[in-house]
Amino acid sequence: MVMLDADGIVADRLAIDASPLLPGNTSLIVFEVPAMACDGIGRVLINAVIACEGGPDGPGGFLSLIEPSSRTDVALLK
Hints:
This protein is an all-beta fold. Helices cover 0% and strands 21% of the residues.
């Protein structure tokens, strides 16, 4: 995940363990970004899946299973 500030500049990035990602299931992932205040985050980009085993093949792979959503004003991109 990449956090972008309000000006669209990369402010921080981190790798998270989001497994399992199964079609039709909802997952909630809680994590801290200690280097940033929440109001400093303008957008969050989910840009890649680092590693997976036994998952979907083809265009997008596991990333194609992710439909990000948020209850905040921060835009989630993939």
